[in-house]
Amino acid sequence: MEYDEFTIFPSGATYDIPLWDLPDDATPWDAGMIPVPEPSFGLMLMFGAAGLIGLVSMKRYAWGLEGSTSKQQI
């Protein structure tokens, strides 16, 4: 995917809004920087939740709780 001066990022900013502090009023694309848009909040939330679910399921499997529905008798 290619980004240019007309790209609008999820934050609402564009390349036309100079939010950078580069010397001589240089733009990031003039300085050879590769712009990357901010990840969407929903996508980050989805991957975080999937990671937590994965950790919980790994712990349940490691503790031997997978598949057991009744308590062990003494």
Summarize this entry quickly.
This protein has one helix spanning 41-62. The protein is mostly helical and 74 residues long.
Overview of this protein structure:
This protein has 74 residues and is mainly α. It folds into two domains: 1-35, no CATH class; 38-66. The chain is built from one helix and no strands. It has one helix at residues 41-62. The radius of gyration is 23 Å and the shape is rod-shaped. The termini are far apart. The relative contact order is 0.11.
Core attributes:
mainly alpha, 0% strand
Number of strands: 0
Helix percent reads 25-40%
Tally of structural domains? 2
C-alpha geometry: rod-shaped
* Average residue pLDDT: 72
User: Helix- and strand-based class?
Assistant: mainly alpha
Gyration radius, to the nearest Å? 23 Å
Largest sheet, described in full?
none
> What is the N-to-C order of secondary-structure elements (H for helix, E for strand)?
H
Q: Unreliable segments (pLDDT under 50, ≥5 consecutive)?
A: none
The total count of helices amounts to 1
Beta-strand percentage range:
under 5%
- The assembly state of the depicted protein chains is single chain
First CA to last CA: what distance? Answer: 61 Å
List the helices and strands and how they pair.
Layout: H1 41-62
